[in-house]
Write a structure and sequence with these properties.
349 residues; two-stranded antiparallel sheet; 15 helices; 5 strands; 6% strand
């Protein structure tokens, strides 16, 4: 009888898991149940508190960290200088993946837009979410063309810059100065509902798209010591820009169509690159309800930097400093030893 009881005990233990085995099975079951849940489980080892944080689009809200309060009484915060792994907005405007060579505007592949569309069509798409109809494009183009001329006082202001002033410095200053010519677009003067008024918003869009090429062309002409050209509304957007930069005294001058189309494609490719430095700058400034011209000037100032849009100029200066092919190995060696920077590579978007 005793021997039979012993055998039964051995059999029972064989089929019945130990306490440790039961714990492991329970944990495995909980893990299996959690798989597929769009949450992140976080445990604060300082206090032992555990919380589930919702995940949406592979992102958690930093505000969720306020659930954790440390021994000092302060809430937990995230630290991410340079936005290395931080999303500050949801955008349906563009998507970029530099590693995979993907750029989309409102879902359209950039290759398709560059081949079949003009810059103004793409600008309409970015602003309003859809490509324009023929009637919408005509109205859009006409309204922008009506704002290509600059006030004579703006022209005089630009002429007052030094002969060797950098064109970007002139552009930034002039765009900021436009705010003084349009007080009705300034929330500090016209009230904080300026940005809520669709008619006012669209008018500033037309003005900026129309006047910025004129300002840029005038800045270029000032730098090379030539008189400014008035815009020509008989030409397309990029044709007009090249006309204002290059016309001398010809009465029937017209830019080469191949160059105009190349510039048009270049504008399309640079139209939007997600939340880059200049986009972040304009959003940050506009959040204070400062006028749109000051905000755009701040974005242009951010673009001026050699770690952003100014990288193009930095590359040219780098190539000039290298001088000739035989100097390339020594330059690359200096880059490897961190004595010099290789501009144009590793640019974060």
């Amino acid at each position: 009888m005793e021997r039979a009881t012993t055998r039964l005990s051995m059999i029972y233990r064989h089929f019945t898991p130990t306490f440790e085995e039961q714990e492991a099975q329970l944990q495995a079951a909980n893990t299996a149940a959690a798989v597929g849940k769009q949450t992140l489980t976080v445990t604060d080892n300082r206090t032992g508190k555990t919380a589930e944080i919702p995940i949406k689009d592979d992102t958690i809200a930093a505000k969720e960290l306020e659930k954790f309060v440390g021994p000092s009484g302060e809430v937990l915060r995230s630290y991410d200088p340079g936005y290395m792994n931080t999303a500050s907005c949801v955008s349906r405007i563009s998507f970029i993946d530099g590693d995979k060579g993907i750029l989309r505007y409102r879902g359209y592949p950039i290759e398709e837009l560059a081949e079949k569309s003009t810059f103004l069509e793409v600008a309409f798409l970015l602003m309003y979410g859809e490509l324009p109809t023929a009637a919408q494009l005509n109205d859009w183009t006409t309204r922008i063309a009506q704002h290509t001329f600059l006030h004579s006082n703006v022209i005089e202001m630009m002429k007052s810059f030094r002969y060797d002033a950098h064109p970007m410095g002139m552009l930034v200053s002039t765009v900021a100065g436009l705010s003084t010519f349009h007080p009705e677009a300034n929330p500090a003067l016209a009230g904080s509902n300026v940005y809520d008024n669709k008619v006012h918003r669209n008018k500033q869009i037309h003005r900026i798209l129309g006047t910025v090429p004129t300002i840029a062309a005038c800045a270029y002409r000032h730098r090379i010591g030539r008189p400014f050209n008035d815009p020509s509304n008989r030409l397309g957007y990029c044709e007009n820009f090249l006309y204002m930069m290059d016309r001398l005294s010809e009465t029937n001058y017209k830019p080469h169509p191949g160059l105009a189309r190349a510039l048009d494609i270049l504008f399309i490719l640079h139209a939007d690159h997600e939340l880059n430095c200049s986009t972040a700058a304009v959003r940050h400034l506009a959040s204070s309800e400062v006028d749109v011209y000051t905000s755009i000037a701040g974005a242009a100032a951010a673009l001026y930097g050699p770690r952003h849009g100014g990288a193009n100029e930095a590359v040219l200066r780098m190539l000039e400093s290298i001088g000739s092919v035989e100097n390339i190995p020594a330059f690359i060696e200096d880059v490897k030893q961190k004595k010099k920077k290789l501009m144009g590579f590793g640019h974060r978007v």
